[in-house]
Amino acid sequence: MADQPEAGFLRLFPLQSMVLFPGMPLPLTVFEPRYLQLMNECMDSKEPFGVLLLKEGAEVGQNAVDPFEIGTTAHIQKISSGGGGHLSVTGLGGERFQVRSFNYDHPYLAAEVQYLNDTTASLVEPSLVGHVKDDAIAFVRAVLTQRGGFVRDVELPDEPTELSFHIAQLFQGNPGIQQKLLERDTFDRLWDELNLIKTAMDQLIREGDRQRPDSPPSFSAN
Fold first, then answer.
1. Where exactly are the structural domains of the chain?
2. Which of 29, 48, 131, 169 supports an S-S bond with 73, CB 3.0-4.6 Å?
3. Of 15, 173, 148, nearest to 93 (Cα)?
4. What is the DSSP string of 13-28?
5. What confidence score (pLDDT) does residue 44 get?
6. What stretch of H or E contains 130?
7. Nearest to residue 114, comparing CAs of 21, 19, 8, 42?
8. Which CATH number fits domain 7-115: 3.40.570.10, 2.60.40.1120, 3.30.420.40, 2.30.130.40?
9. CA separation (Å) from 50 to 8, 28, 176?
């Protein structure tokens, strides 16, 4: 976002198995008092909160958490009562950030953060964008076909950074892979994704009929 500061204070919402990317929707059910307070403060101040993937620990409870230090801001789009003291929150991924220092002065985890600028999109050749898009579309169609679903047109953006964040979402269920992609710049992210898609496609072909139609393919970084 054009008016995003270079650094500042950010309330944090660590997640155990999900990596948020810029432009990605984020549905949350919030019920812990500390996170209800966090959401209320963000709404009052019209500020985003930060999402970090946990290395270990839990999203709820009093256990100490150990998150990665690079995450994405989440801007609240909609918030409503889910009953029973729960809030249903819909957020949207904003900007990548890196933690400079954690802040433990609040009921929730917070941090002083540095927002990450990525200037490598201009280094990306149109041929790389084309290869990533073609391979991703072929992979999505192969997955849908294996599941017995309708093979529809797959639309992907042409802008390199936006494309890289769209492709990263193909690897949901593999937070370790996604965290590495989030930490990369656009140029390196696209090259990593090209290799990951090729590996995933090879694995899909090897699995063949052994893959259940109602089960998503598993990905591996190996």
1. 7-115, 121-210
2. 48
3. 15
4. EEESS----TT-EEEE
5. 95
6. helix 126-146
7. 8
8. 2.30.130.40
9. 11, 13, 18
